[in-house]
């Protein structure tokens, strides 16, 4: 569908990415960075997925609201996303919480993070607003969601996932009628409503909302005047529209981007260490559930100028090689082995070391004879020679952050305590 000028609807839209959250369940990974700034997939950051979806969908006006420890996130966006050109009616605004409305308050909630920047949004004059969460892993064409929004005459269109009803209590859940009109919106219900005709499944919110801009402004201004509001889209704005307007569900399956070999609609909230670990290792499968090699829907990120990966030594027991692994640029695997692992940019592995089921973030150094299994190693960590992790659960518990699924997170402070 196109507007009256013949352009895709995405060209009349602005994407507004909410990227201020800490993501505390990622524990020490977010001690010094916001969740959207956490590394993912060998080269990217989590936020690159929402931003790439917007660009690939044809959206050329983007705003990103930041708050918690935003320096690394802002630095990444300045480096990776500085190609927008105002002379082509493109824009990329980074919007830190700056007490613009009140000198006493930062962003109070997701809705307030948009409300405080109404004047900046209005200056771009978008006809439609797409509000996005900046902390999920997925590929989606927002143009298709915009088309449904216009065709349905909705006041708000809410992106949603089909999830097993038994697992639905962890999400904001929508009750809908046969026409996908939302009749109720409940945050983490004990008894989730099911999909009509499908009692085993429920519709869960993805945290993606489409509005006409003038209507969104009206709702934000109304909500700002409510003394008891939490200033939240899921808790306040959407439930109000469900009761007093027309809210429609958009199913992720209708706009999910899949390459030919991708058989499922891939969406992950990598909000826990176990979920983050598994989503990264998903990429090592022979036929991965999420295809990062899809040139038709690239995941844009900061392209660091660096040397290719290198594998050296070819002796029995000291052979540099990798099996079912992703090895990024500037890595050196020197007489070592990586199995079902991700080595991010600049990782160095010393002779006779090994990593198995490992997510090694940028610029780590793995010492000689070290053996690491089921680990996440934070960026810049130097693993001492001979360190063994993943073979003695009780010892790992005392030294590192170990999850219920037996994944160990290792950061610099933990290594410093060993020395």
UniProtKB/TrEMBL annotation:
The record marks 67, 106 as: Could play a key role in the communication between the regulatory and the substrate sites. It is an enzyme of class 2 (transferase). The keyword Transferase applies. Residues 16-285 form the Nucleotidyl transferase domain. SUPFAM superfamilies: Nucleotide-diphospho-sugar transferases, Trimeric LpxA-like enzymes. One of its GO terms (biological process) is glycogen biosynthetic process. InterPro entries: ADP-Glc_PPase (IPR011831), ADP_Glu_pyroP_CS (IPR005836), GlgC_bac (IPR023049), GlmU/GlgC-like_hexapep (IPR056818), NTP_transferase_dom (IPR005835), Nucleotide-diphossugar_trans (IPR029044), Trimer_LpxA-like_sf (IPR011004). It catalyses: alpha-D-glucose 1-phosphate + ATP + H(+) = ADP-alpha-D-glucose + diphosphate. Keywords: ATP-binding, Carbohydrate metabolism, Glycogen biosynthesis, Glycogen metabolism, Nucleotide-binding, Nucleotidyltransferase, Transferase. GO terms for molecular function: ATP binding; glucose-1-phosphate adenylyltransferase activity. It comes from the Bacteria. Its EC number is 2.7.7.27. The keyword Nucleotide-binding applies. Alpha-D-glucose 1-phosphate binds at residues 107, 172, 187-188, 205. Pfam families: Hexapep_GlmU (PF24894), NTP_transferase (PF00483). PROSITE patterns: ADP_GLC_PYROPHOSPH_1 (PS00808), ADP_GLC_PYROPHOSPH_2 (PS00809), ADP_GLC_PYROPHOSPH_3 (PS00810). Gene3D superfamilies: Hexapeptide repeat proteins, Spore Coat Polysaccharide Biosynthesis Protein SpsA, Chain A. Residues 307-410 form the Glucose-1-phosphate adenylyltransferase/Bifunctional protein GlmU-like C-terminal hexapeptide domain. Pathway: Glycan biosynthesis; glycogen biosynthesis. CDD domains: ADP_Glucose_PP, LbH_G1P_AT_C. Involved in the biosynthesis of ADP-glucose, a building block required for the elongation reactions to produce glycogen. Catalyzes the reaction between ATP and alpha-D-glucose 1-phosphate (G1P) to produce pyrophosphate and ADP-Glc. Homotetramer. Belongs to the bacterial/plant glucose-1-phosphate adenylyltransferase family. This is Glucose-1-phosphate adenylyltransferase. It comes from Sphingomonas lycopersici.
